Amino acid sequence: MDLNLPEELVLALKDIIPGREPQIRQLTSLLSPVSGPSTLVVHGTEATGKSTTTKAVLKFLENPFAIIRSQECVTTRHLLERTIAAVNKAGIDEKAGDGALYAANGRCESISAFIVLLQKTLPSVGKFTLVFDGIDRQRDASPTLLPAIARLGELITNLSVILIVTVPQPRLLHRPGIPHIRFPPYTKAEALQIVSLSPLVLCPSSPSDLIPNMPKDEDSQWLWSRFCGAVWDSLGQGAARDITSFRSVCSQLWKPFTEPILKGDYGVREFAKLMVRNRALFQSEAALTKSIITPNTSPTSSKSAVVKALLALPFYSAYLLVAAYLASYNPPRLDQTFFTKTSERRKRRRAPPSTPNHRKIKNRKINRRLLGPQAFVLERWLAIFSAIVPDGGVKGGGADVMGQIATLGRLGLVTRAGTGDGEMGGEKWRANVGWEVVRGLGRAVGCEVENYLAE
């Protein structure tokens, strides 16, 4: 290849790797076999095309190279031995000297042994390039590993080292003057261009979902480009900036977005109507969270379902549940005040703001609903039930009432707290429902629970 005309290489790679023309030109000039630095640092955030661009440029330059991914190496020794194996696998064994066979089978326990084995493997071969991908995230790496790898080109003249890192720290290599090539994040236009290279098509989930007029490929590609732009503006710009995350979000939202088209409700070119129909997809962040668990119904819908089920309770069972709640959250000393029909309740009046008692409040009490339900005896429960039920209710010891109490216990709406002292009506119970449920249940049967609840 004529290195004086790298424009051919740039034009060939620009179509394969869009959005990285400046980086391709820099790599082409710095990786020249005639003259080039012994060490090169390629840095940038995740999924910005560092590894792909470097590998493509090395292939087009037809230079022998080996790529070692640090995420596949458990220890430093594993990294060094894997590097020696990758160099031998690159197809230079026949050109290497007699030490290549020894180097391929030799053990490499330190960086010094690694340099010796590498020198025996590359005695008289032409320019060779070692690429360490993600070397800054190597496990169990010593502080001298990166500086030693960065100086390999000084000890082995026909070797070039490329370090692909995420963030280049100032004192990472302990050596100044190393050229750096930065891969910035993709812009919106570049990201849309890359994702548009492999568009998803409108494919029904089953043959029965076929519509009479299936869209053409150009219509599907037009819709895909518009759809990716909407995903970038709503979710990708703030939370899925890298290409991998952006492509994943587009793939997850594509099927529910195009479902109205497969059903025949809208056409492919009716993008505005599709956006209005599927605006909830772009407002939710569910596509950004990876999960293997199918989401259940929302808490609001499940709560309303519980309330509807409780409203289906029989008349006396509803009053029994309300009475159990009042017995759990009202102190026994106030039963005569709230449930005796001949007593008169004294209304509390707030003191005016100017009085001294208003400025100095002592012994502030906590709302009993915040303290949890208290246990109560069955006799007190039946007494409260007889007081709040209309028309005097039924006799407390009736078989029907006791059967409904047992049913509430089996449903878990009330729980048994103790067996009592063995006397009839001495066993203890506790309410197991919340305030919102009891208030709605009471209003459904015509009982205002607030009138019987202590502050």
UniProtKB/TrEMBL annotation:
- All copies of the Orc1-like AAA ATPase domain together span 18-162
All copies of the Origin recognition complex subunit 5 C-terminal domain together span 313-453
Can you give the residue ranges of the ORC5 lid domain?
A: 224-283
Which superkingdom heads the taxonomic lineage of this protein's source? Eukaryota
- Which stretches does UniProt call biased (Basic residues)? 344-359
Q: Which family does it belong to?
A: Belongs to the ORC5 family.
- Give the protein's recorded name: Orc1-like AAA ATPase domain-containing protein
